[in-house]
Design a protein that fits this description.
Elements (H helix, E strand, L loop, with lengths): L48 H5 L3 H6 L2 H11 L4 H9 L5 H15 L10 E4 L3 H12 L12 E5 L25 H8 L3 E6 L3 H4 L9 E2 L3 E2 L16 H8 L5 E6 L5 H6 L3 E4 L19 E6 L2 H9 L30 E5 H6 L1 H12 L3 E5 L9 H19 L9 H9 L2 H4 L5 H8 L6 H22 L4 E5 L4 H7 L3 E8 L5 E7 L5 H15 L10
Parallel strand pairs: 2-3, 2-6, 9-10, 9-11
Antiparallel strand pairs: 1-3, 4-5, 6-8, 7-8, 7-12, 11-13, 12-13
Helix pairs in contact: 3-5, 5-6, 14-17, 14-18, 18-19
Length: 536
């Protein structure tokens, strides 16, 4: 694929809570706060530091602190175009870029007072592949901007040579081929950095457990407040690693809130695309009706680059579509004349939301406050349970490795054999899947939920002639999921206690280009993101 986008990139740019309507699979506290007492398990007993770091031992020994400090100004908090400029100018190599992130992961991620537990595994061939990209650079002039950039994958995304565990001990030896989106990333030149921790089984497993916990990866922690602020889930490790500069960019997945929640609660940009715009082939599922992967990055520009590197028609995914290629040209992006709907209740309750709305007004947008219609997404969890009962066996058969499992019931029985180690918080949601009645008309349920989700947004959009809807974090993720509407969250500031929050834009299906333009304009106008201080 040729370079698709952002040949411009603006000189000026180079520089969860849930509410009661969220209906998402995340069960976080309203203030996104959890005390240390909530965590039964912090560190993982299932990750061997010796095996994790053995492939990089000699290279990291030569990558001294002096070398790290020398390249840090070229990489830390820089976006992809800036990094690519440094490489093009000969100031940096892809090998040094990869070593920088390996150095930081080893320094910050595990077994110290700043540990975040955000990374589960690393690509043992990373440095060899980075050196190959450095060689290829000499003979190539038209690469995709993702070329040579290390990408961290949520550990429910199949990757050849690295186990895909979904955070579960049951899948610790799940060796697979590449998921479709991983194939696309590699075709476009990306480097696979490794796998990110997650809320186990994408947070549809244990019920009453903290987000960011998995039996394989331990408890992911929020760098803005370790053991204080919730990481959000389920793409917890992906968001934490990006915000702490342990990875330049990452991939998450969402069924209902699992990209929007951790992205907003870790002050990064997360896109939940329209269902089918990115293939789900080779991703451990919850619901084939609602699941989607999506990019998590520190900037809107990087998000668009990463998104474009994953698109493509997957004939094995029934909902996959060919996304029209676009250059996402942000050069003349503005908000003049754009009309956004703001929830009256949020305007009354949230000062950061008010400030974000004023930032949009100052940038030329028109804001219409509206009262949300009272709509309940009844049987939302039943949809997830029924889909997973069907979709997980299909994953095992079509995409999984030699795990020995064929069903949810197999996994439930396996976990019971060693419950303390394999499910310290129980497996209430998996047990609920087994109890769900197969007599439910699943297709009617999906149609009903989609109709309700679209009605929730379409009524104010039509009544007030709106371009999009403004939310917070993953507050309305359930409705967006049911409607198959895309959403993007952008950092909008921090509470008095220091907890990050995101302004979330919601649009109609296949309006990702509009979302990116609005998000970029807001990001440029507000510039609210700050990196976590202890991880500089």
């Amino acid at each position: 694929m040729k370079r698709l986008l952002l040949l411009l990139l603006l000189p000026a740019f180079f520089s969860c809570g849930n509410d009661k309507n969220s209906n998402d699979e995340n069960t976080e506290t309203p203030d996104s706060l959890k005390t240390e007492e909530k965590f039964k398990v912090l560190d993982s007993e299932n990750i061997s530091r010796d095996s994790l770091w053995a492939p990089f031992e000699s290279d990291l020994a030569e990558f001294s602190e002096e070398k790290y400090e020398a390249v840090k100004p070229l990489i830390y908090d820089k976006n992809i175009p800036e990094i690519q400029d440094a490489i093009k100018n000969g100031d940096l190599t892809y090998e040094e870029l990869s070593l920088f992130y390996l150095y930081r992961i080893k320094e910050f991620d595990r077994e110290n007072e700043l540990s975040l537990n955000s990374v589960i595994s690393l690509n043992p061939n990373l440095l060899e592949e980075a050196r190959q990209k450095d060689e290829e650079l000499k003979n190539s002039e038209d690469n995709h901007l993702i070329t040579g950039i290390p990408v961290l994958l949520k550990d429910n995304i199949n990757t050849k040579g690295i186990p895909t565990t979904a955070g579960a001990i049951a899948l610790q030896d799940n060796q697979t081929d590449d998921a479709f989106i991983v194939q696309k990333l590699k075709e476009n030149g990306a480097l696979i950095l490794g796998k990110a921790n997650l809320s186990e089984w994408a947070y549809f497993f244990c019920g009453d457990c903290p987000s960011g916990y998995s039996a394989i990866g331990g408890q992911t922690l929020n760098p803005y407040g370790r053991k204080i602020f919730d990481t959000g889930g389920s793409s917890s490790g992906s968001a934490v690693a990006v915000t702490a500069n342990l990875a330049p960019v990452a991939i998450g997945s969402e069924t209902s809130g699992s990209i929007l929640s951790p992205s907003s609660q870790n002050s990064v940009v997360g896109l939940k695309p329209t269902i089918g715009n990115l293939s789900r082939g080779g991703i451990v599922p919850i619901s084939s009706h609602l699941d989607t992967p999506g990019p998590i990055t520190k900037s809107v520009v990087d998000n668009a680059i990463l998104y474009s590197a994953m698109t493509g028609l997957d004939p094995e995914d029934a909902l996959s579509v060919e996304v029209e290629k676009t250059d996402f040209n942000f050069e003349n992006t503005g908000l003049e004349g754009k009309r956004f709907g703001a929830f009256k209740q949020l305007m009354e309750e949230d000062s950061l939301y008010n400030r974000a709305v004023n930032d949009l007004k100052s940038a030329g947008a028109e804001i219409v406050e509206f009262e949300a219609e009272e709509i309940q997404l009844d049987n939302f969890r039943s949809l997830l349970s029924l889909d997973m009962k069907k979709d997980l066996p299909e994953y095992f058969e079509q995409y999984g490795g030699e795990t020995g499992f064929t069903s949810v019931e197999d996994v439930v029985k396996f976990n019971i054999e060693d419950s303390t180690r394999r499910m310290p918080y129980g497996q209430a949601l998996f047990e609920g899947i087994l109890k769900e009645s197969d007599s439910t008309d699943l297709e009617s349920l999906k149609s009903e939920l989609m109709e309700k989700g679209r009605k929730y947004f379409n009524r104010p959009i039509k009544e007030h002639n709106l371009d999009g809807i403004l939310s917070i974090n993953n507050y309305h993720a359930g409705f967006a999921a049911a409607a198959h509407y895309p959403a993007i969250t952008v950092p909008m500031g921090y509470s008095e206690e220091g907890a990050p929050k995101g302004l979330t834009f919601i649009a109609k299906s296949s309006e990702e280009e509009k979302l990116y333009q609005w998000a970029f304009a807001y990001e440029k106008a507000s510039n609210r993101r700050q990196s976590p201080k202890n991880y500089e």
